[in-house]
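job 3f2a | input accepted
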Amino acid sequence: MKPPRVLAVAQLMNSIGDGAFYVTSALYFTGVVGLAPAEIGLGLTVGWAVGSVAGVPLGNLADRRGARGTAVVLALATALAVASFLFVRSFPLFAVAAVLYASCQCGLTAARQALLAGLVEQVRRTEVRAFLQSATNAGLAVGAALGGLALRSDTREAYLAVFVMDAVSFLTAGLVLSRLPVVARATVRPGEPRLAVLRDRPYAVVTSINAVMLFYMPLISLVIPLWIVQQTRAPTWTVSALLVLNTLSVAAFQVPVARRVTGLRSASRVVRHSGLVMFAACAFFALSATGSAAWTAGLILLAAAGLQVLGEMMLASGAWEISFGLAPADRQGQYQGFFGTGQAVARMLGPLVLTTLVLGWGAFGWLLLGVLFATAGIAMGPAVRWAERARTRPDRPATTAEANSPP
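job 3f2a | predicted structure (407 res):
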């Protein structure tokens, strides 16, 4: 089996477990363990904060010790982290388990990206990454359906079965990844810093812009459901319809959208367009609360969700090309680990920022959020060009690129 298909099978396996985990974990920790929602939120925030930091050194470990072996070990470690949730009986134990889980997840993501970069030729990386994303979404959909069965049962045993299934899914993913070819280790040059990415200011700016645009992540799972229930006349089942639309759209169209990206220039253009599309989506979401009838509000929400998922797919395609294209070939692990901190930041700050803007300020908040997305999308092009200039300067190695002026 070719490496992209092996990677896709591994993604599919553990995303099935994760899908079931995502839809059941909150109810398990509140209803069975007895944690307060605020404690769960705090524990996850701490976990993803530590995970965002751990992703860089774990990615560097993949560069130095081998991406395949590191990915396999981290998949097994993630399985153990998931299994540790079975023994959580208090908030301190939950916080420790959340830190382990998030750190292993962030490191595993960086190691997988390094594997992809080492096994797939540069011109196909974005397309293959899109293929993997489609496999991930398909797995999440299947897992969410299995998790729904546990929710319907609503017993401690059913929830624990989901946790066991998630742990087994990561064990299976680790075994699948072990079938991949070995990727060459990075060579250590004299005088080079161990974590060169931390000195690469242009790459840090690009990562920060991407993190801002990733604030769309809490929309479909948190903000939009609350907006529909509190601010529109649309029926509550619209929440489920929008989630299905999002999941199926990514599974079906992420690869075709990614084929439009063929280099850094086209990637910057696609990210710019994604910001404008997200602005349009925010405008439609704002319009859904203007006192319209239930069916009209539902149609507006479907149009808004369609624009949102299109912007999401465009952003992902451009961001993958940019993250790979600006990273040195032998430092993909640590660079992908650093770029992945954007997701952790969006998971930590996104719910607070978006609920304040949208639920607190209503339609005006939606428009402000749209302006934020559009501005970040437009800023990506100059930032990428700055990073390209820094990498090609003859007097400095690419891994320690710095520039003296902002883009």
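job 3f2a | Residues 394-407 have pLDDT under 50 and may be disordered.
job 3f2a | closed
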